[in-house]
Amino acid sequence: MTAVFVGILVLHILLVLLEANPGNSLVQHLSNWAGDISGWSKDLFTPDSYKARIFVNEGLAAVVYALVGGALSRASTRL
To answer: Model's pTM, two decimal places?
Structure first.
């Protein structure tokens, strides 16, 4: 599940940085999912640029999910 969350966030970051068409239904769905997944980090940092804001806030969420998910996975295999 962690990989799916991180994958959605990274894909959304790439779509924003590459200026994908926000009117496309796939881009809209990924944007909604990424917003739901990274809700706790939304506007944690507020750079002026929209691209920078998405990169920093959703990137932070992706890193946190990857670290926590990895730690939980390692802990569960030790049991």
So the answer is: 0.90
